[in-house]
Structures are given as structure tokens and as C-alpha cells.
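Re: [ENG-882] Designed sequences occasionally contain unexpected residues at chain ends

Forwarding the minimal case from QA. C-alpha cells:
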């Protein structure tokens, strides 16, 4: 077996060789040969595990080795990527054959860790397709993607599938807009501006507000599951603006409602969740506000989706809120299950008291029962989601781009694409959901030129 020291030595030698090959493309010992050498080393990894068995453990070890190599040396793309894709698909299929248990849940968690390391790589590959798919862990990065993509294509309205509205306020909108302008200029300033946006739109609850500020969406549609407890309404006139604050110099760019525009209707409210920060303002106070962004906002419950199969009220509301043409399809995986709400899955509370082996075993059995139930719920919900996307497609509504937020706990993240320490999607199901949603998108939008990264 290749030891860690040997692996680092080989990787360092390969990276050095890649740098030499960049200066001397005609040298006989190029990146391709070194990649083959490293691939052979990775494939030679073998370690048995009494819990998982030799086969499953070996597959993880080889994927770990190949993934680290590709991330470290992108020049190995042509040599390593095809084999890496084949192995990922094989392991995904194999894991799907196991009944969920405590052990298999841990295997899926490790599988997600490997998957997340390739987010940036797959995003770069997908960017060249007619319908790109961009994935990150933390949802706030979606705003950067929308702003960057708006340079190249008409995005259309934002359709946001999420347990949460993600419309929280932002600080210093003037500086955000300055970075947006630099992104649109392109060239050398673009990369620096994107990094600056990453530091300013940094909260997982702010991607929608960042998109409204940076792109000026005319329609924002929040499609939510029943456990979000949101009040449904269609195309309400709302706006964001920077509200001066006497306590600080910059104020807050937050969601507002003008009574003069919508005087006969109540503000949107929640029965249990305080996510949406909406204030009503008088016309006389509008003069002191800056960076006003008016838009129409719709809240539509899309799961359960039985009513969407016919010409029901919600389906009509969705078609009205999303005009024919292109739209931004934004998916947060906690739309399917979120641990902060009554979405169908909760872990057993850890029992730190004394109860003996029998009590501990009962706790494990209950946890595994919940895992099995959780997978069944996810399968049902993804089937409903796929049906809804097909209906939208048949009605002439097709995405311009697709963004996916995994929204799960990632203390092991090795790149900024994986940063974000808020767990909403249960980590046990993150990889299961991520891969199946990508396959689902590929099946629905294959003819639209999608590169779903599968």
C-alpha cells in the first residue's frame, strides 16, 4: 500500500513535472506520463476494513487519491477525469444498493466529502455548456454566479426552491455594486471583484437579496415545501432599499413594502419562522433611501405538488409568476429535507446517561429506522420535483442557468466552494440528494444542452 509520505512525495514530483511541462511542452516526460504513473499508484491502494469490507474501502481510497491529484494538478484532466467519473458513478450506484444504516450513512458522508472537492472543477466544465449547472455548499455563492453569468446571457426571473426565503438584508450595498461593476467589466478586475463579493455577500440567508441588488431581478419566486409555514401570495409589489441608520454610517439594504403601491393587502407573515424581514414604509420616508430595487415577489407552496398536475390555483400562480422563456433555477437541497423544521427527519438525541448496552442498541435501531424512512421521503419528493420541472418545461419555461446549494455541515471543506458551516440538509443524505438531483436535471433538460456534471 502507498503510504501517506510516499503519496505526498509522488504528488510533489508530479506537480513539479507538470510545471516543467508547462515550460517545455515537447519534453518526453510530460503531465500525461506522470498522471499515468500516479493513477497506477492510486489504483494500487488496498486496505481491508472489518466494518465496510475490502471492496468498499478500496474504492474510497482510490477515489481519495485520484480526486486529490486532479484538484492539485488540473493538467491531469484528460488522463484522470474519465476514470474518476467512472469510479464516482460506480460507487454512487453501489451505495444506492445498500439499505441505509449507521455505517452506510457514514459512507455517504465520506462520498459527499469527495464530491464537494470537485465542485469548482465541475463548475468550470459546465460553464461551457448551453445550460450550465453550478454547485456549492454554502448558498450565498449563488449570488456571485448569477451576477457573473448576467454578463453573458439574459437570466430571466429568479425561481428559488428552498425551505428558507434567503432574503435577509445586506450591509454596504454601494460597495457591493462597485464590485458588480468590476465583474461586468471583465478582464483582470473580474477575479478580484468576485472575491470581494464573496466577502460581502457572505451570509447563507442573503443570496436572493444579493441577486436583487446586483442583477435587479423583476420577479422573485420562492417555491417552498409545506413545512416552511409561509403565507402564499402571488406577485406582490415589494422593493429593497438601503435604509439609513443613525447608529452606523452605511445603513442596511433590506426588504420593504410600500403601502401606497399595495394598500389593500396585508404584509406577508409567518406563523413560526422569523426569516423574512419585511417592513412597511410611508411614501414620505422613501426620499432618504438609496439603491431602491422594485420587483414582484411570489410565495408558492410547491410541495406537496398534487394540485400542480392540473389547472389548479397554485399552478396558475406559478405560470403567472414565471413568464414563458428563460429563468434562473436555484435549488437548495434543504428544499427536500431540512433539519431545522418538521420535514420528516431528526436524529436521535445523544444519550449521555447510563443505560447499558440494550438502551444504546435501541437508540441505534431507532436512528437507522429514521434513516430508511428519510430516504423514502426524499425519493418521493424528488419524483414530485421532477414532475414539476417537466411541467414547466412543457409550458415553455426553461432555465437559463441552474445553481445548487448543498447546505450541509462541512468542517472538512478544502476549498472555498465548500465553506459554510450551517447544516440544513442532513449530512447523512447530502451526497444521495446531490447525485440524484444532478441525474434528475440531466434527464429533464438533456435536449436543452445541460451539463449536469454526471
Amino acid at each position: 500500500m502507498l503510504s501517506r509520505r510516499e503519496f505526498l512525495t509522488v504528488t510533489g514530483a508530479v506537480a513539479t513535472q507538470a510545471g516543467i511541462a508547462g515550460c517545455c511542452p515537447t519534453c518526453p516526460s510530460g503531465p500525461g506520463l506522470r498522471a499515468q504513473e500516479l493513477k497506477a499508484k492510486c489504483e494500487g491502494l488496498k486496505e481491508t476494513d472489518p466494518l465496510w469490507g475490502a471492496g468498499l474501502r478500496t474504492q474510497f481510497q482510490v477515489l481519495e487519491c485520484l480526486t486529490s491529484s486532479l484538484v492539485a494538478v488540473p493538467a491531469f484532466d484528460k488522463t484522470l477525469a474519465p476514470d474518476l467519473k467512472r469510479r464516482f458513478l460506480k460507487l454512487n450506484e453501489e451505495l444506492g444498493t445498500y439499505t441505509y444504516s449507521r455505517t452506510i450513512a457514514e459512507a455517504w458522508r465520506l462520498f459527499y466529502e469527495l464530491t464537494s472537492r470537485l465542485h469548482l472543477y465541475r463548475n468550470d466544465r459546465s460553464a461551457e455548456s448551453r445550460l450550465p449547472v453550478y454547485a456549492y455548499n454554502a448558498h450565498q455563492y449563488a449570488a456571485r454566479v448569477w451576477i457573473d453569468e448576467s454578463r453573458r446571457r439574459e437570466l430571466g426571473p429568479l425561481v428559488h426552491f428552498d425551505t428558507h426565503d434567503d432574503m435577509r438584508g445586506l450591509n454596504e450595498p454601494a460597495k457591493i455594486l462597485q464590485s458588480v461593476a468590476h465583474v461586468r467589466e471583465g478582464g483582470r478586475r473580474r477575479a478580484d471583484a468576485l472575491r470581494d463579493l464573496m466577502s460581502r455577500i457572505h451570509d447563507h440567508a442573503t443570496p436572493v437579496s444579493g441577486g436583487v441588488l446586483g442583477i435587479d431581478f423583476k420577479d422573485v419566486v420562492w417555491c417552498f415545501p409545506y413545512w416552511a409555514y409561509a403565507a402564499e401570495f402571488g406577485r406582490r409589489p415589494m422593493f429593497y432599499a438601503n435604509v439609513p441608520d443613525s447608529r452606523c454610517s452605511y445603513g442596511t439594504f433590506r426588504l420593504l413594502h410600500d403601502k401606497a403601491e399595495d394598500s389593500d393587502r396585508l404584509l406577508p407573515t409567518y406563523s413560526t419562522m422569523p426569516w423574512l424581514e419585511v417592513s412597511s414604509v410611508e411614501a414620505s420616508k422613501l426620499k432618504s433611501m438609496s439603491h431602491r430595487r422594485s420587483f414582484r415577489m411570489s410565495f408558492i407552496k410547491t410541495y406537496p405538488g398534487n394540485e400542480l398536475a392540473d389547472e389548479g390555483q397554485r399552478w396558475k400562480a406559478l405560470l403567472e409568476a414565471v413568464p414563458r422563456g428563460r429563468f434562473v433555477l436555484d435549488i437548495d437541497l434543504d428544499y427536500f429535507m431540512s433539519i431545522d423544521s418538521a420535514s420528516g427527519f431528526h436524529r436521535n438525541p445523544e444519550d449521555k446517561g447510563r443505560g447499558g448496552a440494550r438502551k444504546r442498541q435501541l437508540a441505534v435501531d431507532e436512528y437507522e429506522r429514521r434513516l430508511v424512512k428519510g430516504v423514502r421521503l426524499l425519493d418521493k419528493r424528488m419524483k414530485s420535483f421532477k414532475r414539476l420541472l417537466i411541467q414547466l418545461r412543457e409550458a415553455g419555461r426553461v432555465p437559463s442557468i441552474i445553481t445548487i446549494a448543498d447546505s450541509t455541515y462541512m468542517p472538512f471543506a478544502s476549498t472555498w466552494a465548500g465553506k459554510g458551516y450551517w447544516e440544513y440538509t442532513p449530512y447523512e443524505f447530502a451526497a444521495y440528494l446531490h447525485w440524484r438531483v444532478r441525474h434528475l436535471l440531466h434527464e429533464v433538460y438533456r435536449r436543452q444542452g445541460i451539463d449536469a456534471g454526471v
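QA comment: On inspection the terminal residues look reasonable. The first helix runs from residue 4 to 23. Proposing we downgrade this to a documentation issue.
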